[in-house]
Amino acid sequence: MSDGYEILAEKYGYPGSERLKKILKRLMDEEEAEIVASLPSPVADLARKLDKTEDDVNKRLGGLFGKGVVFMTSKGYRPARDILQLHDATASDVRLDYIWGRELLDLWEHFCEAELYPGWAKGIQALEAPVWRIIPARKAVSAGTKLVPSEDLEVMLGKATRFAVVRCSCRRIAGRCDSPLEVCLQLNRAAEYAMARGTGKELTREEALEVLDVAAEAGLIHSVYTGVEVSNVICNCCNDCCVFYYPLLKYGGLDKGVVKSSFRAKVDVASCTGCQTCVDRCPFEAIDMIKVSGEKKLKAQVNTDGCYGCGVCAVGCEAEAIKLVEVGPSGQSSV
Ligand code: SF4
Ligand code: SF4
Ligand code: SF4
To answer: Which CATH number describes the domain made up of 263-326?
Structure first.
């Protein structure tokens, strides 16, 4: 029998990683690891290779699908595409906690801290094009502002047909903040997958929009993958647990990996009460409190270069003194 764990560790970019192998061993036994490492492959071939019945192999694959280890395609099962898909799919399933407690999540945390986060940041620093894009919070933009379709959450949801929400795997693993968990929004094919697995809760379009608003209120950044015409996942991320933002903030690479929205925050000094809420909420530390001549209280000031245009500050400003202002896709502006 070949070492399926090692083959998979290598496939996911971490050859010889004992930490990753511990995760794989928690998720599948030796035979299952060999099945997964052999995919894609017809069930009949797998059954022959392992000296099992096709029924047995199918049952094993069904169980692995339920755990998020393999995915169903029109041509049969395939393993998780990459380490992030394995991370997201296996760690979002709260049902596994009833069997294993935090064991799987702790194994992921050890692997992430020691290998995934530094490796991910290094990989991003070497990339030609960013992989992640920020969508502005809709309540941070002044009423009447015309948004481009790729930044308009209502348009994005208007084009989708199925909606589901799953738990955020990053916050379940890292647990470094108390931001809401049930805000990882899945659309279309991704929603169907989450519902078929039983990890997703189906939503109406209106409920999906509410999830996005709740996330922005909680200070989470709407984020999507770049390079896809239609985004099937709208992530709502924090800066202290997210597998994208946390390592890029810790090890560097944010500018390489993340596309800013076409907005930047701007403060109306006269309306600013100096409460500092926006300073605490900004995930990118782009706001300072400064002395303004003639004013007794310190006022908020946005460092435009450091602003990513997420709008989290504006959503939390009770005085409505900070808003997103459009600067265009180049990000160059006179704000
Ligand atoms: S990418 Fe963001 S929303 Fe998605 S699982 Fe990670 S923190 Fe949660
Ligand atoms: S949250 Fe609003 S009022 Fe408070 S400091 Fe920031 S801009 Fe000023
Ligand atoms: S100042 Fe900070 S919170 Fe506000 S839009 Fe810019 S990056 Fe987001």
So the answer is: 3.30.70.20
